Inverse folding.
């Protein structure tokens, strides 16, 4: 019994010593003693790396330019005949200038009867469509807002981009506003199809996560400059699968001022209408068939001919365009891509087939819709 009591006293003494040590340690922490400083240092948060700080700075600055876009359509109840708004989807856009112009994808606002833009400060305002270019999936909206609430994005360049350089995407995937994702430029010079089935050239491929709702948002370089507009993803499920595409900023920078000024893209062209590719292939023609030549057009001035009906009621094919400045054109898309490399007033050399002859003409490009 005596031994048990002695052992019990030892255990109680050890326990009392532990408690006393803890109280002393707590006292050191409170008093700022060296032991307390060591303990505080051990639980202090890790300092951010220079790269993390740079990414945070880019986001803090660029996020103020990013907006949320809601697209709604008007529908009528067949029973009550009441008209009500139906959400059609949402997407992202960004502030282009302090006049309230907002850039986004055309497919984000397609079919909208009403468009609402939510700024970074949560201010909601109605927007009107200023212009659209479905062929490049670009649209320009305008809102009425104080200049102090409008922070234009910093415009960069896509000309000198390199595969592997860091990129950042800001958008509203699945309605989650101002979401940041990062990645790299995965490839350059890709081609994708727009809603109008036209080919968009020179597209940027990235592995920065882009999901539904990111469309129309900015793709930025590591300095926070706009290098592209996030447009499409490749995914069997419709969600992020590591492959996203952005329209390059050099293309956007060429189109947006035209849309603001004219409401549409003024293209250089020949002043002709074309026979669809499917019909040309059906007839075994390799090239672009001229269907009709506009009166007083650039094409008429150099003697190009469209399809015509002969005296016997037979249809004679128009001239077949086969090259522009030495580059072969086999489809309507090929021809339009070559035209877009120029501006109104430029001269180009057209090669065309007429019957069994191969001819050339130098044409001064005109403005076409």
């Amino acid at each position: 019994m005596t031994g048990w009591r002695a052992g019990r006293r030892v255990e109680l003494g050890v326990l009392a010593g532990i408690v006393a040590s803890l109280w002393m340690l707590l006292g050191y922490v409170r008093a700022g003693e060296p032991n307390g400083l060591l303990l505080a240092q051990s639980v202090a948060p890790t300092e951010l790396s220079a790269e993390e700080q740079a990414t945070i700075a880019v986001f803090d600055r660029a996020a103020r330019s990013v907006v949320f876009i809601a697209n709604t359509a008007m529908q009528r109840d067949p029973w009550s005949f009441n008209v009500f708004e139906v959400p059609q989807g949402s997407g992202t856009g960004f502030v282009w200038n302090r006049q309230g112009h907002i850039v986004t994808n055309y497919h984000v606002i397609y079919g909208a009867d009403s468009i609402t833009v939510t700024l970074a400060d949560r201010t909601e305002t109605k927007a009107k469509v200023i212009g659209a270019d479905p062929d490049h999936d670009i649209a320009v909206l305008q809102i009425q807002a104080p200049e102090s609430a409008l922070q234009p994005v910093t415009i960069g360049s896509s000309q000198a981009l390199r595969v592997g350089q860091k990129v950042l995407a800001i958008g509203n995937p699945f309605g989650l506003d101002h979401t940041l994702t990062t990645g790299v430029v995965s490839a350059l010079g890709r081609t994708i199809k727009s809603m109008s089935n036209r080919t968009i050239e020179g597209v940027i491929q990235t592995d920065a996560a882009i999901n539904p709702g990111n469309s129309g948002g900015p793709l930025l370089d590591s300095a926070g400059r706009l290098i592209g507009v996030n447009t499409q993803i490749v995914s069997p499920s419709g969600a992020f699968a590591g492959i996203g595409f952005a329209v390059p900023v050099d293309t956007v920078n060429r189109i947006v001022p035209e849309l603001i000024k004219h409401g549409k893209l003024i293209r250089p062209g020949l002043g002709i209408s074309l026979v669809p590719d499917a019909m040309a292939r059906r007839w075994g023609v390799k090239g672009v068939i001229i269907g009709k030549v506009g009166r007083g057009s650039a094409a008429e001035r150099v003697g190009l001919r469209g399809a015509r009906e002969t005296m016997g009621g037979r249809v004679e094919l128009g001239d077949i365009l086969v090259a522009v400045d030495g580059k072969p054109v086999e489809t309507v898309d090929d021809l339009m891509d070559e035209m877009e490399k120029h501006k109104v007033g430029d001269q180009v050399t057209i090669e065309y087939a007429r019957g069994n002859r191969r001819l050339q003409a130098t044409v001064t490009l005109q403005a076409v819709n």
Notes: The chain has eight helices and 22 strands.
